[in-house]
């Protein structure tokens, strides 16, 4: 399969993402094209106004236990994340919102965007307890993959998940990710080595390939 290396400068993407965040600040519903009426959600770009909410979500036990890096989050660290990763084009972060009332439910993002190889790493967390266990994560993953392939023109989106988080792995599979390997004792968390499941979705031009 042939690949297209865009050769687009990182400076362009820095301006591009900053401009889109400004539009999101003023428009609010800019990203509603990425919505799932069945699941009752849509995605919008994260803004600085989401900072306190994201910090609270990330520090909750229910969210933090599923992250590979489990250090407590701070407002300063999130602002640094925006400045050094989001505004530079290295990250695109969305907020998952309820279609009925615009309530933020969680966040989905891609990081380490590689414009040479056209790939990025995927991440998600559902911050609101009442949004868990009803398909929001799977629906958000499908929407984000669509965004990655349609808007960012990525070829491959990959993720890492703790192997014991079977619910998340099954959700990723439903969204179109495939298991590619198991990394034994890959990370050390609270004194114990843990296995990592490596998964990916590839934009082959045939959606059925990822869904099989």
Fold topology:
Layout: H1 10-27, E1 35-36, E2 41-45, H2 51-59, H3 61-64, H4 75-86, E3 92-98, E4 104-114, E5 119-126, H5 136-150, E6 156-162, H6 166-175, E7 178-189, E8 192-202, H7 207-211
Parallel strand pairs: 5-6
Antiparallel strand pairs: 1-2, 2-3, 3-4, 4-5, 6-8, 7-8
Helix pairs in contact: 5-6
Describe the structure.
- This protein is of the alpha+beta class and 212 residues long.
- Helix content is 34%, strand content 30%.
- It is built from 7 helices and 8 strands, in the order αββαααβββαβαββα.
- It has helices spanning 10-27, 51-59, 61-64, 75-86, 136-150, 166-175, 207-211, and strands at 35-36, 41-45, 92-98, 104-114, 119-126, 156-162, 178-189, 192-202.
- An 8-stranded mixed beta sheet has the order 1-2-3-4-5-6-8-7, sandwiched between helices.
- Helix 5 crosses helix 6.
- The longest helix has 18 residues, at 10-27.
- The two termini are 20 Å apart.
- Mean pLDDT is 86; it is low at 7-18 and 23-29.
The tally of helices reads 7
| Fraction of residues in helix | 25-40%
Spans of at least 5 consecutive residues with low confidence = 7-18, 23-29
Strand order of the largest sheet: 1-2-3-4-5-6-8-7
Question: Rough shape?
Answer: globular
Largest sheet geometry = 8 strands, mixed
Secondary structure class reads alpha+beta
Secondary-structure element series: HEEHHHEEEHEHEEH
Query: Gap between N and C termini, in Å?
Result: 20 Å
Radius of gyration: 17 Å
Mean pLDDT: 86
Number of strands: 8
* Relative strand content: 25-35%
